[in-house]
Amino acid sequence: MIEILPVLGIPEVGPGDDIASLIGDLEDGDIVVVTSKIVSKAEGRVRQAPDRTAAIMEETVRVVARRGDTVISQTRHGFVMAAAGVDASNTAPGTILLLPEDPDASARRIRKGLRGRVGVIVTDTFGRPWRHGLTDVAIGAAGVLPLEDFRGGTDTHGNPLSATVTALADEIASAAELVKGKLGNVPVAIVRGLSHLVTDDDGPGVRPLVRPADEDMFRYGSRDVVFARRTVTSFTDRPVDPEAVRRALMAADAAASPTGEKAWRFTVDGDASPYRIVPSVVGEPTPARLLALGAAVQNVLVQLAMEGLDSRWTMDDAAGVIEVGHGG
Amino acid sequence: MIEILPVLGIPEVGPGDDIASLIGDLEDGDIVVVTSKIVSKAEGRVRQAPDRTAAIMEETVRVVARRGDTVISQTRHGFVMAAAGVDASNTAPGTILLLPEDPDASARRIRKGLRGRVGVIVTDTFGRPWRHGLTDVAIGAAGVLPLEDFRGGTDTHGNPLSATVTALADEIASAAELVKGKLGNVPVAIVRGLSHLVTDDDGPGVRPLVRPADEDMFRYGSRDVVFARRTVTSFTDRPVDPEAVRRALMAADAAASPTGEKAWRFTVDGDASPYRIVPSVVGEPTPARLLALGAAVQNVLVQLAMEGLDSRWTMDDAAGVIEVGHGG
């Protein structure tokens, strides 16, 4: 059995407050789940409301998508979330809150102030691209296994479990929100019954939960994707995967031609970095065919970027050459 | 306090089994969380492993993204998930399982077989685009509020709560997974202490959790986005939003030119459907400039698609015309 208990009676938190001292008695194996908002307040991560846009930009390393007033940002921490986590709710009027500077460090500090063998998770509320409604996820952790990795094991039928990695810290954050949200304005909950997930040392925090860019199949919001390609000025020696180039060319070649005829060709030339792709018109280079080839090259450049490859399209003769590699 | 209790001793489920009869005593207000796998087994949603690709296609209404062997599909139900939910783990060797045909209906059937005022959630395991690890989410529900909508309210500081809609059913699914996953092979858990979320009638199921396509900022996977544009043969009278066209042109115009000079121009001509955009070369139409213009047009077509607009690029003269509207 797992129990989720609210921590009642936590007063309004201000700069310099010691959150650990506000949390009462714990049992060994408890996981303390703290809403990031009070951590931000304790750490003085407050700004004035008119500075909201500047604050979002300060916290954003990459705009993942944008529509109207909504910006989905990747934060300095690697989180992909609305407005880089800058929040105007549950803070004094006229002020806004930023995420903690380093939420794993915040979790470690809180943990250090608590007695016993306990874990700490700092949470924030995230949207999801294809589902309505927000859920709480872990943005910082100390002393808790963030992921449970069943890879390499087998299920009860003997089938290999190829990719069953559970995001435990996120599930704990969501479970705690059920009690915090039910009561309203309860910023801390205790999850009891998961002592097997509490570790002796602080552990890796939430870093294992952040998917690296090269595994991200939704790296670019739809609007941004045509700018995904990176035009590089120099390439490293790191070899290019010919399969990745083949996939990019296949994908680009599947696009329709604006002229109704597919009068273009891509010749692959080279097997080092930079790899060379030579685009050319098939037949007479009429204006229409050159325009269609230009559109096709643009598709190739985007598809190469989707494979994690950098490119440079230069016009040394009519259609030029696309160099492909890893940017230096 | 919330308690999450495993339901132990559930035997291997087969076609025709009555899942409700396998669940023991409940209290009023309990929420029963059932792994979809046993629902699929009870409903006979089993296929032979060699038919996996066909099964994924059968369940897929749209490929959202693809990389190597991984396909992210939108299912018939509207869920965006790997392999359309077709799963080869925890099933008899040589077999695969599909999601229940209608998981909300499955939840209603299970609820009907249970005594007392209880809710039922059917869960499955989903990946997330920017975070490692899987979490359980609700794919079917009966008698449970799927979302808690705080919009229109105010927080404790009097700030308006503009978008705090919590995906309760998903958080409950994740909470239950903590107990099911901890013990292994426990397909049912009971969440106790959330009786305020249990409703008299079956309610809307999980439909409110599925984000409609026009709110989806990640509609197209990066690889597929260049094919997002729909080349239409006829347009309806529905007017085109000039702002959407302006945004698309601005976004496309921000791309770098392969020739180093931006020798293209887009002239907007028309305010009906189809709207007309005339691309042209600035200066002499050299091959390099035509190629660069072709790439720029491709960017415009993609950006128009991102605005939900259909287009048709025809070559009536050198660079032709882009007609923009809503496809008939």
From TrEMBL, chains A, B:
Keywords: GTP-binding, Ligase, Magnesium, Manganese, Metal-binding, Multifunctional enzyme, Nucleotide-binding, Potassium. Gene3D superfamilies: CofE-like (3.30.1330.100), CofE-like domain (3.90.1660.10), NADH Oxidase (3.40.109.10). It comes from the Bacteria. Residues 10-193 form the Coenzyme F420:L-glutamate ligase-like domain. GO terms for molecular function: coenzyme F420-0:L-glutamate ligase activity; GTP binding; metal ion binding; oxidoreductase activity. The keyword Nucleotide-binding applies. NCBIfam families: F420_cofE, PRK13294.1. This is Coenzyme F420-0:L-glutamate ligase.
